[in-house]
Amino acid sequence: MSIITPHTQAVIGEPEVVEDTAAWQQLKAAAIALRTHQVKDGSIPETGAHDEARALVGTIIDSIRTLAPSFPHDAAYLEAAVVDFQRWADEDFGVPDFLDSLVAFQPQQNRVDGIRHLVIFPMYTQNGSSDRLVEALIVETIWPEFIAELEAGDYGNKLFVSLRLIDFTPGYDTNSAVLFPETVAMREIPPFTWGAIFQDREAARYRRVVRAASQITKLELPEAAARMLDDQQLTEKTFVMWDIIHDRTHMRGDLPFDPFMIKQRMPYFLYSLEELRCDLTAFRESVKIQKSLAERTDALSDAEQEMLEHAGLVQYAVIFDRIFRFAITGSRLRNYDGLGGQLLFAWLHQRGVLHWTDTQLAFDWERVPEAVVALGDAIDDLYWRSIDRPKTAHWLAAYELVRSTLEPHPASVWARGLSDEVLAGPPKGFTDAVLDDEFPLSMFFEALDKKMKPVIESTVGIRGTDN
Known about the structure:
- By secondary structure, the chain is of the alpha+beta class.
- 51% of the residues lie in helices and 9% in strands.
- It is built from 17 helices and seven strands.
- The chain has helices spanning 15-35, 50-67, 75-90, 99-104, 145-152, 199-216, 223-229, 232-249, 268-294, 302-325, 336-350, 368-386, 391-403, 413-416, 420-423, 427-432, 443-458; strands at 116-123, 133-141, 160-168, 178-179, 195-198, 354-357, 360-363.
- The strands form two sheets. The chain has a five-stranded mixed β-sheet. It has a two-stranded antiparallel sheet with strand order 6-7.
- Strand 6 (354-357) and strand 7 form a beta hairpin.
- InterPro entries: DUF6421.
């Protein structure tokens, strides 16, 4: 099967298939070679490298033109990419400007299950590289019918794109699982009309980590949750449902601040609560969808049956991904996702629905939904009340919410009480006083981290076919 066009039976020696694959490999190799000459901002300041760089750009342009007929839905974008690459070379490889091709790339307009895109930009990769190097990818849309119905109904999100990684350059041989337009090198910031998540990578990481963690903790997984560990596509669809609800939540609710907190310097636990709020909203809405469909007396359509199944799976995914992967992934340097995982675990433990007894983890599954929703309600109440609070008062209230469940570091000045000088001063003083690891790992997570570290590290660059 061609790497370029899915759902087409490949015939050995078929010219267009061989040509497509060869053109992609040429493009990928040229991009990788070009990256070796780029510096952090994406430019190539070494003039001695310009002749080779121009030859590589020529190969990229020729490859794009060869591949373009396989991506008719991206014709305007690929034509603009050729122009952007040529202009970059003509202007002696200064800081690249790919605004025109970025504006032309509109994957959210083609959310068709299985449709593929060729993506090539100078860009950084979140949780990957902070350098704006040329990245090239072949990606495939994941858009099953039940997700299309969800999006067309109560969970509209015109900006959300769900993707599967087919092949990629080294910037994605990392922990990066997103494709965001703001990462592209460009002269000005346009209105962003899409954001993409690689659900295949998220699902593959989840399956590997949860399998290992459940064995280490001797957790008896519910039958439905266990099926996810053996079924990549089932898990991918679960993550699509989770993420489409999560993503839209950033823009909805009683929000005391910019929903994405763009260009705001805040104590990192504020980001923890925002990400957790969106995950817990996905959990709450999945409970609601599951209950509504289970109570129906008429026959469910095939899409509704899938929706019912995945509504239950989302709940398991939120809990297990948060407590098993998020809590112990990454450094302890202002790790806001890690803190969110710690908070969820401790909240459930202190409410008696999660048990760590005789070195075995167990859940009281009938009571879990109520406890999880209660944490979401607590964060929602914090936000609603903080609409009427000054910024720093909101920060203090948010800290108390986290502190009421998690134990701060013994050296925390926030826990002891900020001085009058800090309290009367600018917000910077509040943020500077937060320790890099304000809420250290509990003894449970310290032990789990030691046993899980090789597994977590093994998920770097993971593909959906790797489990």
